[in-house]
Structures are given as C-alpha cells and as structure tokens.
UniProtKB/TrEMBL annotation:
The keyword Transmembrane applies. Keywords: Membrane, Transmembrane, Transmembrane helix. This is Apolipoprotein acyltransferase. The chain crosses the membrane at residues 33-50.
Amino acid sequence: MIIIAAIVVGAILGARAAKKRGGAIADILQYAAVYAIALGIVATILTVLIDRFAL
C-alpha cells in the first residue's frame, strides 16, 4: 500500500514540476513517470527494511 501511494504522489509531484517549468504534455508525462518510478523504488526499499526489522 505504501508503494502505490508513493507512485501516485511521485506522479503528481513530477507533473507539477514539469508544469512549473513550462513543459509540454510529453515533458509532463515524462517527469510524472520518472518521479513515480523513483519514489516507487524508495518506497519498495523502505517497505523491505520495515518488514525486515519489524518486531
């Protein structure tokens, strides 16, 4: 669940960053995808660490 939330938040943040820089539709989609992938990877690592070290 954390991973899905991170992907959605990443896509939103990426789209907002591209819009702020005046990007075209392709730029907005690319930023959204890259941010979503990056935050998804971070969330996956955090999920594994939490699961590994949870009591």
